């Protein structure tokens, strides 16, 4: 596609990091669609919004993953502060849009089904152009003895106006009770 940057891909992936298993399906960039003014991404027949994610993928080895999940947002925060309203200022625009959420629905991996009923969930967005030279984030919304507590923090060394900054930053969002 003439409008794509080198290395651009349309990929839907499922991961079970405990088992070190990733199932991913690559599609043509022409099969990708998104909307600027609302949370909507489509790759082929697979879709993601701020309220639902649905997909059915098969990798080159025949491994299959399907999911149909609804998401209920409980809390978000503006991790970038005033910088979020200044397009082009930084190379990263991280926004924990659903720093605290719950997810319900079903996941199927190679014939094994997992049902979720209001399971803790998280979803973020990055409207930036690249990641900083280093970036780290930690999110937790499932504290054993403190339901309703959420921590979302991220930081790094962003580029400012296209040049790597000598400054590093950290944003912390904490919701308790």
Specify the overall morphology.
globular
- Summarize the amount of helix as a percent range: under 10%
Instruction: Please describe the biggest sheet, giving its number of strands, its sense, and whether it closes into a barrel.
Output: 7 strands, antiparallel
Q: Can you give the mean pLDDT?
A: 89
- What is the rounded Rg? 18 Å
- Going by helix content, strand content and strand pairing, the class is mainly beta
Unreliable spans: none
Tally the beta strands.
14
Q: Can you write the helix and strand succession as a string?
A: EEEEEEEEEEEEEE
Give the strand order of the largest sheet, numbering strands 1, 2, ... along the chain.
Answer: 3-4-5-6-7-8-9
Summarize the structure in words.
The strands form four sheets. The chain has a seven-stranded antiparallel β-sheet, with no helix packed on it. Strands 10-11-14 form a three-stranded antiparallel β-sheet, with no helix packed on it. Strands 1-2 form a two-stranded antiparallel sheet. The chain is built from no helices and 14 strands. It is mainly β and 177 residues long. The model has no long low-confidence stretch (mean pLDDT 89). The relative contact order is 0.14. A hairpin with a 2-residue loop joins strand 4 (40-43) and strand 5.
């Amino acid at each position: 596609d003439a409008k794509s940057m080198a290395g651009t891909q349309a990929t839907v992936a499922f991961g079970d990091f405990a088992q070190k298993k990733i199932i991913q399906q690559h599609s043509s960039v022409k099969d990708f669609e998104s909307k600027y003014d609302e949370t909507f991404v489509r790759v082929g027949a697979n879709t993601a919004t701020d309220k639902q994610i649905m997909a059915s993928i098969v990798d080159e080895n025949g491994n299959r993953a399907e999911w149909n999940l609804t998401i209920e947002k409980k809390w978000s925060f503006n991790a970038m502060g005033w910088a979020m309203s200044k397009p082009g200022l930084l190379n990263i625009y991280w926004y924990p849009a659903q720093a605290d959420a719950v997810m319900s629905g079903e996941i199927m991996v190679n014939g094994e089904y997992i049902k979720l009923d209001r399971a803790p969930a998280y979803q973020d967005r990055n409207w930036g152009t690249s990641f900083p030279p280093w970036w780290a984030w930690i999110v937790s919304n499932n504290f054993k003895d403190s339901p309703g507590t959420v921590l979302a923090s991220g930081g790094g060394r962003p580029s400012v106006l296209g040049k790597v900054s000598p400054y590093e930053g950290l944003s912390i969002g904490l919701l308790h009770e």
